[in-house]
Amino acid sequence: MEKPKCLECNEPFVGRVDKKFCSDYCRNAHNNKVNKDSKNLIRNTNNRLRKNWRILEELNPNGKCRVSKQRLDAKGFDFNFFTSTYTTKIGTVYYFCYDQGYLALDDAYCTLVKRD
Questions:
Q1: pLDDT tens for residues 3-14?
Q2: Domain boundaries of the chain, sorted by first residue
Q3: Cα(51)–Cα(106) distance, rounded to whole angstroms?
Q4: Is the pTM value of this prediction over 0.85?
Q5: Alpha carbon distances (Å) from 27 to 16, 34, 40
Q6: Beta strand pairing status for 100-104 and 84-87?
Q7: Which of 2, 43, 14, 88 is nearest to 111 (CA)?
């Protein structure tokens, strides 16, 4: 019976019948190549969400406050990235980055809130 060949380096190896790679290095290298495009998008999106969350947390230490949109912009907040929305019974929409959220009051101000 012929030895299986590593999917990454094409070298023969011994091991379990269902083994596909000769080492952890080859397994990781192969999976990084396969997932490269989608991982960059996910990584960049998660970085934006994390930055938004840090900004909201920094500006809202007490759980609820009012802040200008200009101040959020100055810190690099991106209003296009959020993890969820919450709509009240009267139709008011809060945008959340994990447990930190905001409500756009008008063109100039937002109310920052923290979900418990």
A1: 899 999 999 998
A2: 38-114
A3: 23
A4: no
A5: 15, 11, 19
A6: unpaired
A7: 88
